[in-house]
Write a structure and sequence with these properties.
The protein is of the alpha+beta class. The protein has 3 helices and 9 strands, in the order H-H-E-E-E-E-E-E-E-E-E-H. The protein has helices at 14-20, 23-31, 139-142; strands spanning 49-53, 59-62, 66-67, 75-76, 85-90, 97-102, 108-113, 123-126, 131-135. The radius of gyration is 14 Å and the shape is globular.
Length: 162
Amino acid sequence: MSDKTPTEKIVKSPSEWKSCLTPEQFRVLREQGTERAFTGPHWDEKRPGLYACAACDTPLFGSDTKFESGTGWPSFFAPVSAGAIVSHEDVSHGMRRIEVRCATCDGHLGHVFPDGPKPTGLRFCMNGTALTFKAGVSAAAGSATPGRPCPEATPSSHPMTR
């Protein structure tokens, strides 16, 4: 994980986000939704590549930090850089958790838990719907790529993101 770098923020109205995202992506990223376990994309992805924010294309996680957590959500032990994400305490639904959001567009990604593998001991449990996967792109190359304000709307072939 590299040092924290400043990120140019992307701010949009709800209607602007709706024009860029599928309904399920909007529910997860903008309304803090959670996809059901084992139903979203990427939880079982095994190829090398880079995971980026589905809302703004900011590089977030490399496949080299992905691990099988058994939860049904894509899980990682570290982001590509400390500046890629922001976190804060989430006390919704009668639970105390740490929410993880995209540092560029403030999209809800998931939560981080202190039960992950070495070397960090963390489990970044992400909603697959909040991520796009770029096969063959390395985390090192991707971490230098800035987010873009509105990726072309390319709904996933996964039934939960149509």
